[in-house]
Amino acid sequence: MKIVIQLLLWIVIAFLGYQLYTSISEPIAFNEVKEARYAKVIKNLKDIRDAELAHQEITGSFTGSFDSLVRFIDTAQFAIVQRRDTSFADVAKNKAFGIAEGYFIEKVLIDTLGYTPVKDSLFGGSDRYKTMMNIPVEGVDAKIELQAGKLKKNDATYSVFEARVPKDVILADQNKDLLAQEKQVVSVDGVNGAYIKVGSMNEVNTSGNWPKIYDTAKDQ
Known about the structure:
By secondary structure, the chain is of the alpha+beta class. The protein is built from 7 helices and 5 strands; from the N terminus they run ααβαβαββααβα. The chain folds into 2 domains: 34-76 and 120-216, no CATH class; 77-118, no CATH class.
């Protein structure tokens, strides 16, 4: 009986030790996977934001279509401009006051010096913009969600866009309890909410919801 009790105690100790080990190791492993995948997704979201901002600068609005965005990058060009300040006599005002050159008109002249392809300016020699809509996680065959539209605020109308990826998709193969906790994150050091996203359909904002560490870390 004594041997049986000792054996049972060893089994209980082993079980509790295993439980303690997994309670420590699983969150560590989860965070390693999470951070690596988030970095890859955020890299794509940054490319989408850069492309959308270029699209707005040239066309005046954002687009909710990746096909349209890729065609734009393939064909659009930035104007290379030079700004010059100049002034000249205000003839009418000087004449009214009976003086020769007392008043001047200040103007800013914008000269177009040439054009450069958007593709080269944003992506250099890379064609990664053609796949920036894909979620870069092995085993995940899905695309980043993209919306664009108009937002009325303070009697003005703004063009807005939002690109986002559900954490459920990025971490679908991970511990479900840890994933549920991750979706509830509210922290300055974490990606808050159930999505990683850039832009917003509800406010004039082109920022991402990730912490600064993902802007300073090296691309993975």
